[in-house]
Structures are given as structure tokens and as C-alpha cells.
Design a protein that fits this description.
- By secondary structure, this protein is mainly beta.
- It is built from one helix and 34 strands.
- The strands form seven sheets. Strands 2, 6, 7, 9, 14, 15, 16 and 19 form an eight-stranded antiparallel sheet that branches. A seven-stranded antiparallel sheet has the order 8-18-10-11-12-13-17, with no helix packed on it.
Length: about 450
């Protein structure tokens, strides 16, 4: 059999729909599973720690913080709730809240993942955003008469006494004790008109109607978990997992993408998905007929990157690791070379292990290799790990006889070309595969790791 000649055709980033978080207009992205600090952005918080800084992942530096130790929320995790993702727990008894210099007015889209708050005849603030003009946009939970369970308003004008009252809007969401996804848009129109808003509860559209009256004081800041520091009121008794804020109204398709990402991450589809948006800036390129993978540090808490490879984006094999040590901990970029990409689609992803014991997966990349097959069949990957693929120009049913270096048959397989077959039960060593197709028969050598 002649050598397989591989010609690079295209490498593109592969992002499933649930991972697509649009970048345009994203001015705030807070994730409880990433860059939460128990001091001034030096030490990553561990479960149980009080949180001083919640770092903005949008790249705009709109971090939230609380410098008073007793008023800091706590990093928590609940088994079988929101996929056991980390959350920030706000305690009304300690009047916990976070504040930011972020200011925004005009059209906006807001996504909040939270657990049902313990409201009792009082409003509880999830998010309050101040503008440069001093107006406020906020989202709060309420069970007071005349208010919707989720009430919200944009561009409310404050007064020194709080006596200027404006009619808010909202909807009667049914809160779930195991988690909620709230989505809101505001188009910049009359702030008391339900027609200028839209809302979703757990990815499903809900009607927006008039709600109770809101009044604000002028010296409060942009906050999560309460109206503070002037009004010192409406503190939250609940948990928040993620907040994403845009300075524009997203399209219906974009909203569905973000909702799908959140629903998959936090288990609203019934399963917990481990894939996130492209956090490590993961890229691939062809160099001298091999694939070079590059990525930036995920964060300072990483112990190890494991590089995984797949031919179907379902079954994954580890093809190498990059361990973080004192020698490379300050690297601005990490790289790995995959020496055996071949005909068809190759997928890559990073399995990221943190010092805190969490495992996070990157987005996957798709590398498409278009090759001229000068031979009949080829084995990929080689060396083989837990799965073997017999690459061919067309799909056909193959009979495979595997035998070891001593000539003893160890396994018989009937598989289709270009689909995986399990080889995890083979011991490491040299093997030969006798491949019988419709018209051709070849024997190829491979190594099992």
C-alpha cells in the first residue's frame, strides 16, 4: 500500500449552538465557575469562601466587588442542582451584595441564572444597573401585592426621597427551587410600556405586563443582590450562577443561542453538558502536515491540560497532556502538536483540570483534512488508544482481523469504514490488522498505546 498523502483543506472553530455567546455588545459576563476571588483578584475562591471580587469575563473590566468582609456573598455548590455548578449565595441576614462601576443606559439584553429566592413580602434585587445619567435598570423578585413575581424596569429616574414612583413591568414566572433562567430585553422606548420589553423563563417566552411602582435613590451604584449603599434595601436571599449583559437587543436567534448555552450548562435539557464557550482561545493550524494546537491560559488555577481527539465529536481519546509547573506557569500560550491527522474531520478539545478539583472542557475545534487517497485503507490514529478507525474514500462494511506480533488472532471486528471501533481492551504493543472490504484486502501494522 502506498503512503497516504494528506493535504490540508480547512480548519475552523466548531461551536455547538449551546456554546455560542455573541461577542458584539457583550459588556458583562459573570460566571460563578470562573475567576471568582476571595481577595483582590489574587487568590481564587474555593467552595465555602466569601467572595470579594467577581471578575467580568467580557473583557471590559466591569468587575463586581465587596470590600466589607461581612457583606460578601459565599461561593457554594449544591449537589444535583444546576448541574452542581458553583454559585454565589447572597444572604439577606448579612445584607450581602456586590457593586461595580459599570454604567449602561438604553437598549439592553439581560440573562440571569439563579435559584428561587426566599422572598417574603419584600422585593429582592437580582441586578441593578446605573446609567451615566443616574437612572437605573433593575430586575427583582417580589411577592408583594400588585407586583409580578419577576418585576423589572429600565431608565427609572431617582429622587432624593425616592418619592418619584414609576410603574414597572414584569411577568408571573413560576420559580423553580432547582434553578431558573431569566431573559429580558428592553428596546429603549417608554420604560413603563410592556410593549418595549420581552422576557423568557427557562428559554420559553412569557408575557410582559404592568407591575408595581418603583422608586429609587440617586446615590446607589450598579449592584447585584441589593439596592446599595444609599437605599440599603431589597437584599437578596438566593443564589446566582451566571449573568450576561448586552448593550443592545439581541436577535431572536442570538437569544436562543445564549439560552441554549445556559440551559445545557446548567442542566435544563435534563443532562449536564461540560462544553463551554471558547475560554482558552483554543486554535489550530497546519504546519508541515501536522496540526498545531494553541491556547491561552484558562486561569491561574489550572494544574493540567489534557488534549483530546475525536473523529466523530462524540468518542474522545487523550493524545497528550501539558502539566503546569513552576517552569511554565507564567506562559502566555501553550501548544501541542498532533502528528497523525488524516483524511476527513478531526475534532480537538481541552480537558482542563483545576487545583480546586474541577474539570472544565473547552470548546471543540474541527479540523477538516481533504486528502488524495493513493492507497485503499489507512488506520487512524496510529498509535491507537481506545478506538480505531479504518479510513477509506467511501463508506463500506469491513471485516477486521486483529492479531499480535506473534501472529495470534486477538479480535475480530465487523465495522463500517470511517466509524469508531473499541480497542480499549487490547494490551499495549504491536498489532496487525487484516482488513477485508468488498473488493480489496490489505494488512496494516499499528501500535496500541
Amino acid at each position: 500500500m502506498k503512503n497516504l498523502i494528506c493535504i490540508f483543506f480547512a480548519i475552523t472553530s466548531y461551536l455547538p449552538n449551546y456554546c455560542q455567546v455573541p461577542a458584539a455588545g457583550n459588556i458583562l459576563w459573570l460566571r460563578a465557575d470562573r475567576n471568582v476571588f476571595n481577595d483582590n483578584m489574587v487568590t481564587h475562591a474555593q467552595l465555602g469562601d466569601l467572595v470579594q471580587v467577581w471578575q467580568d469575563q467580557s473583557g471590559n473590566g466591569n468587575h463586581f466587588r465587596q470590600d466589607i468582609n461581612g457583606q460578601r456573598p459565599q461561593l457554594v455548590q449544591y449537589a444535583n442542582t444546576l448541574c452542581s455548578q458553583p454559585l454565589l449565595h447572597f444572604d439577606v441576614g448579612r445584607r450581602t451584595y456586590l457593586h461595580s462601576a459599570l454604567k449602561l443606559s438604553g437598549p439592553k439584553t439581560i440573562f440571569i441564572v439563579f435559584i428561587q429566592p426566599a422572598v417574603s413580602n419584600t422585593p429582592e434585587t437580582l441586578l441593578s444597573v446605573k446609567s451615566n445619567a443616574g437612572t437605573y435598570s433593575e430586575v427583582l423578585c417580589a411577592d408583594a401585592p400588585g407586583y409580578r413575581s419577576l418585576s423589572f424596569i429600565s431608565e427609572i429616574t431617582p429622587s432624593p426621597s425616592g418619592g418619584i414612583l414609576t410603574s414597572a413591568v414584569g411577568d408571573n414566572m413560576s420559580f423553580s427551587a432547582t434553578g431558573n433562567i431569566f431573559t429580558m430585553t428592553y428596546n429603549g422606548g417608554i420604560n413603563s410600556s410592556p410593549a418595549n420589553y420581552s422576557a423568557k423563563n427557562d428559554t420559553v417566552s412569557v408575557p410582559v405586563t404592568s407591575s408595581g411602582l418603583f422608586g429609587r435613590l440617586p446615590m446607589d451604584t450598579t449592584t447585584i443582590g441589593g439596592r446599595a449603599p444609599q437605599q440599603n434595601y431589597s437584599f437578596l436571599s438566593g443564589d446566582i450562577g451566571e449573568i450576561i449583559l448586552y448593550n443592545r437587543v439581541l436577535t431572536a436567534v442570538e437569544i436562543a443561542q445564549v439560552n441554549s448555552y445556559l440551559a445545557a450548562k446548567f442542566g435544563f435539557f435534563g443532562t449536564c453538558n461540560v462544553l463551554y464557550a471558547a475560554d482558552p482561545d483554543f486554535t489550530a493550524r497546519l504546519i508541515n502536515n501536522v496540526i498545531e494546537l494553541n491556547w491561552k491560559p484558562y486561569d491561574a488555577d489550572v494544574n493540567e491540560y489534557s488534549i483530546e481527539h475525536s473523529y466523530d465529536n462524540v468518542n474522545w481519546d487523550s493524545i497528550g497532556t501539558v502539566k503546569i509547573s513552576a517552569a511554565n506557569s507564567n506562559s502566555s500560550q501553550y501548544s501541542f502538536i498532533h502528528n497523525s491527522p488524516c483524511n476527513g474531520i478531526n475534532y480537538y478539545r481541552l480537558k482542563i483540570k483545576t487545583a480546586g478539583g474541577r474539570i472544565v472542557y473547552s470548546n471543540s475545534l474541527k479540523a477538516t483534512i481533504d486528502s488524495t487517497l493513493t492507497g485503499i485503507y489507512t488506520i487512524v490514529p496510529n498509535p491507537v488508544t481506545d478506538h480505531i478507525y479504518i479510513r477509506a474514500a467511501t463508506k463500506e462494511l469491513l471485516h477486521i482481523s486483529l492479531f499480535n506480533a506473534a501472529g495470534k488472532t486477538v479480535k475480530e471486528l465487523d465495522i463500517f469504514s470511517n466509524l469508531p471501533a473499541y480497542t480499549g481492551d487490547l494490551k499495549p504493543g504491536i498489532y496487525f490488522a487484516k482488513i477485508t472490504g468488498k473488493k480489496d484486502q490489505v494488512t496494516l501494522k499499528f501500535f496500541k498505546q
